[in-house]
């Protein structure tokens, strides 16, 4: 008989250890963008910023560290300007792609 595992007993997944390369960051963001969920995008940018160093990214984006944490928490809806500045600080660009039927 196999032991049943409750979902609530599982540890929360942290993507930051896997975001060490530019390719990993690009693949992560591409997958997140396909979900078409602004709050999920904010949380993913927060994961990447934590992997790179939140203080450094905040400085590069021209916002305070506290404001960056607030803007990139999982339940937030940051302004496009904030997302754009954080992406630039992270060295990534969001790209539009045609949707094929």
Automatic annotation (TrEMBL):
Pfam families: dnstrm_HI1420 (PF21716). InterPro entries: Cro/C1-type_HTH, HI1420, Lambda_DNA-bd_dom_sf. SUPFAM superfamilies: lambda repressor-like DNA-binding domains (SSF47413). One of its GO terms (molecular function) is DNA binding. PANTHER family: SSL7038 PROTEIN. This is Putative addiction module antidote protein.
């Amino acid at each position: 008989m196999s032991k049943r595992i409750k979902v609530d007993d599982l540890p929360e997944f942290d993507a930051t250890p896997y975001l060490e390369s530019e390719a990993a960051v690009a693949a992560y963001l591409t997958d997140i963008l396909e979900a078409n969920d602004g709050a999920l995008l904010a949380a993913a940018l927060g994961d990447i910023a934590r992997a790179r160093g939140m203080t450094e990214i905040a400085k590069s984006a021209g916002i305070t560290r506290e404001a960056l944490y607030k803007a990139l928490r999982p339940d937030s809806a940051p302004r496009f300007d904030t997302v754009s500045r954080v992406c630039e600080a992270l060295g990534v660009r969001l790209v539009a792609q045609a949707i094929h039927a």
